[in-house]
Automatic annotation (TrEMBL):
<comment type="similarity">
    <text>Belongs to the AAA ATPase family.</text>
</comment>
<comment type="subunit">
    <text>Homohexamer.</text>
</comment>
<feature type="domain" description="AAA+ ATPase">
    <location>
        <begin position="49"/>
        <end position="189"/>
    </location>
</feature>
<comment type="similarity">
    <text>In the C-terminal section; belongs to the peptidase M41 family.</text>
</comment>
<protein>
    <recommendedName>
        <fullName>ATP-dependent zinc metalloprotease FtsH</fullName>
    </recommendedName>
</protein>
<comment type="function">
    <text>Acts as a processive, ATP-dependent zinc metallopeptidase for both cytoplasmic and membrane proteins. Plays a role in the quality control of integral membrane proteins.</text>
</comment>
<feature type="binding site">
    <location>
        <begin position="57"/>
        <end position="64"/>
    </location>
    <ligand>
        <name>ATP</name>
    </ligand>
</feature>
Amino acid sequence: SKAKLFDEKTDTRTSFKDVAGLEGAKEEVQEIVEFLKNPDKYTSLGGKIPKGALLVGPPGTGKTLLAKAVAGEAKVPFFSLSGSDFVEMFVGVGASRVRDLFKQAKDKSPAIIFIDEIDAIGRARGKNNFTGSNDERENTLNQLLTEMDGFGTNTNVIVLAATNRADVLDKALMRAGRFDRQIYVDLPDLRERKEIFEVHLRPIKTAETLDLDFLAKQTPGFSGADIANVCNEAALIAARKEKKAVNKQDFLDAVDRIVGGLEKKNKIIT
Ligand code: ATP
């Protein structure tokens, strides 16, 4: 909801096991997990823990999921907000929300802060692509930069941010000591789609052993979110037909339905 701008969760339920594929990205964030688990081990030798990393990739590819899994694996609290929450916000509110969020995270450190859709606040300054007031957006962005610069070496808060438009971000965000690492989270390939099906079939009662290779081949260009949708939709289709279990045809019907939805969405955009 709009009112709940961020929420804190000690989200120990999400783990790397829930994130299918994305081997490279998981390897990169593993280091962050290690820092969060044992910050003193790194800082005692004079090293500086990274402050932030940018997760870059198309919608629905698991950026939020991966950020939650980092918190889950490290067993640290997860604080999040979405850039789009700042749309239509009154002057001063965005900056104070950012300040509050960082304060809460520091109080509970080690912790993860996750900023989804950072492009909504982090667009290059002076370019008015924001639905709300541009001054307000700049204030919010400046507050974010200030907070990150204000981290001492022992703050032990790592900020992960997600975007599908890294090209529009203000360069100041990518400077050393801010989001100076970029981690790519791409659309899944055939093998990864198979693994994503595996994860999302776990709760589904299937009538037969499904050929995951076949399902993966039916879903080129699908994101992890699309595949999660297919599995859910297949179960609903089967239930509507009073079936006791979900079969291959239900999955194919679900794929058709999702493809239809994706085509409609693209028509509106283009
Ligand atoms: P957006 O850019 O739209 O915010 P995102 O990249 O943050 O998207 P998520 O919100 O993490 O994507 O993904 C949505 C849902 O899709 C997840 O909760 C999960 O159910 C499923 N999903 C996406 N990617 C994967 C994956 N790699 N493995 C398993 N499930 C996935």
